[in-house]
């Protein structure tokens, strides 16, 4: 079943790889370049899942997550953090902010799609 997924990452190449993997699996993808852009995309349309980087300019992933969870329409939207951060403290901070899963870059597209299937 096709899902509508928001992908937030300041790296164009990462957005391209994630977007391609998701589109090839039949999903709709909306891209954002940082947390602020991601928040702007949360304009009422339904997202089944948000895939978000942690380290980004303007607004980082954890700040985005906290802000997104304040919006009633997205309070229960699952968020998968896709990041180079693998430290336990950062993972705990992400979980506390509302992240449902944590995927460390570089990642295999099958692992990403498996996570999407479980979360969305």
UniProtKB/TrEMBL annotation:
<protein>
    <submittedName>
        <fullName>Response regulator</fullName>
    </submittedName>
</protein>
<keyword id="KW-0597">Phosphoprotein</keyword>
<dbReference type="InterPro" id="IPR050595">
    <property type="entry name" value="Bact_response_regulator"/>
</dbReference>
<feature type="modified residue" description="4-aspartylphosphate">
    <location>
        <position position="53"/>
    </location>
</feature>
<feature type="domain" description="Response regulatory">
    <location>
        <begin position="4"/>
        <end position="120"/>
    </location>
</feature>
<dbReference type="InterPro" id="IPR001789">
    <property type="entry name" value="Sig_transdc_resp-reg_receiver"/>
</dbReference>
<dbReference type="Pfam" id="PF00072">
    <property type="entry name" value="Response_reg"/>
</dbReference>
<dbReference type="InterPro" id="IPR011006">
    <property type="entry name" value="CheY-like_superfamily"/>
</dbReference>
